[in-house]
Amino acid sequence: MLEPKLIRRVFAWLASQCVVQLSLTTLAMPRIVSCGVLLFNENLDVFLAHATGTKYWDVPKGESDPGESPLATALREAREEVGLDLSTIHLEDLGVLDYRPDKRLHLFAACVSKKCIEPSACKCTSFFRDERSGERKPEMDGFAWAPLTTVAQLCGPNLRRVLGELFAAGLVNKVPLQSAPVLTPSRPKT
């Protein structure tokens, strides 16, 4: 397990590498709120999903349906984008965080045992139509537990900054490890 002091230093450095400049114009724009789930384990690996058609990995997140609460949105997005049913675990509300000039991020977090989520059993059930090919593609096409040290290479600058700030501020001490059942569905053997 990584030492908390080292974790804070790594994420303080990650956060310092991402500078987002906001102009008066962008501050005046209405900002969309995406709701999502940040999962990490006892080894401080972060659960990430690869956004199809991009070079980036992300946390499961998305916009609310009309009348849907932020927590309900985060749970739905985890179910749709990675096939996780997180309704049986406690998710810590981290609040609404600055993400991009046009978007904020309402995150919920949990620390679960690595054995609770098997990335190879995850499956995205939400799709989009690829503008170039016209093909129907899953929003997420890969799933992994990623060590904190790889977040800078895998995630986009905005998520990298948010994760850096959260872990540097002591997220590990605020969200205890939970005993949880296996959260991913089993896949049929082929």
Determine the structural class based on helices, strands and strand pairing: alpha+beta
- Unreliable stretches covering 5 or more consecutive residues: 19-27
Radius of gyration: 16 Å
**Number of beta strands:** 10
The main pleated sheet reads as: 5 strands, mixed
CATH topology of the domain at 32-147: Nucleoside Triphosphate Pyrophosphohydrolase
Helical fraction equals: 25-40%
| Helical segment count | 6
Cα separation of the termini? 36 Å
Q: According to CATH, what is the class of the domain at 32-147?
A: Alpha Beta
Task: Assign an overall shape.
Answer: globular
Give the SSE map.
Elements: H1 4-16, H2 24-28, E1 32-40, E2 45-51, E3 57-58, E4 61-63, H3 70-82, E5 92-100, E6 103-112, E7 127-129, E8 136-138, E9 140-147, H4 151-154, H5 157-168, H6 171-174, E10 177-178
Parallel strand pairs: 1-6, 6-10
Antiparallel strand pairs: 1-4, 2-3, 2-9, 5-6, 7-8
